[in-house]
Amino acid sequence: MMTLLKGICASLLTLTTLTTFAEKAKVVSGSYTYYIPYNVARDKAEQIALERAMIEAIASEFGTVLTQHSRMDMRSSKSGENVDFWLSASSLVKGEWISTIGEPVFEAFIEDGGFVVRCKVKGYAREIKGPSADLDVRILRNGTTDAYESSTFKSGDNCYLAFTTPVKGAIAVYLEDEEKTMSCMLPYYAQSQTCTTVTPGERHLFFTTNDGDQEMYQLSTDKEIERNMIYVVFSQNEFIKPIDKSNGKELSLKTLKSEDFQNWLKKSRALDNTFQVITIPITISSSIE
Questions:
Q1: Of 72, 136, 147, 257, which residue is most buried, by most CB within 10 angstroms?
Q2: Strand 169-176 to strand 181-186: parallel, antiparallel, or no bridges (unpaired)?
Q3: Please, are residues 241 and 183 in contact by the beta-carbon 8 Å criterion?
Q4: Is the pLDDT of residue 88 over 50?
Q5: Can you spell out the DSSP letters for 109-163?
Q6: Contacts with 150 (C-beta within 8 Å, 6 or more apart), sequence order
Q7: Distance CA 82, CA 213 (A)
Q8: 12-32 burial, b if ≥16 CB within 10 A, otherwise e?
Q9: If you ran DSSP here, which 8-state letter would residue 91 be given?
Q10: Dihedral of CA 146/150/156/159: which sign?
């Protein structure tokens, strides 16, 4: 089980509204086959395959925004070099991932002498029709500059969040583990506010100190590989986060069930058209580098 450790520191909705939202959220599925370069570890390769399968699922249902930017991955095999072109940002698809149904399915095999991983994923997604704030969200591993951005962690690694918005708003951050439990990372445990205010144009850095105003987080697991999801919730309006509770254990965070969190997301989206959810899948490995 993944454990999220704190640093040593201290309106009612009508049935019509909910039905309208339910019609917007669709079940989508996608798959992606990733040819693993020689210098990419298996957990990182599975993470890439999952992210691209999610993007493929959204793109197949809602389409993409035309762009000239791409990223090129190459691998060598007996038949020569194969090139895999991929759009450089998930924001280029006309939709957003809401939640995953079940667990992603991974298949690893050898093709043309090279290692390959294929991922199939199914979930709920929603089409993005109107303009939304262009947010810069980065999960950082063991460092606070953008150079430390990563989606793969080793047990004991520190996790930080860098966030920039062009408009004033508020955010909350949750982590979903494999047991479908949501842990509230922001607002911090000792804070009474129901969301955290952010100012436009400023690079906000979270989870960096242990002075009582912020908390530091380490990600750990006793499994070989554990897949979690970080939810960064943003709105141009202040909002009230869902009810979460402490289990009373030292260094534990307030939690709630994933199902309750998803119901809160649905209600919040129905009431607020500036409400955005950025989902970032991460892996935590127990192996030592």
A1: 257
A2: antiparallel
A3: no
A4: no
A5: EEETTEEEEEEEEEEEEEE--S-----EEEEEESSSSGGGB-SEEETTEEEEEEE
A6: 139, 140, 141
A7: 50
A8: eeeeeeeeebeeebbebbbbb
A9: G
A10: positive
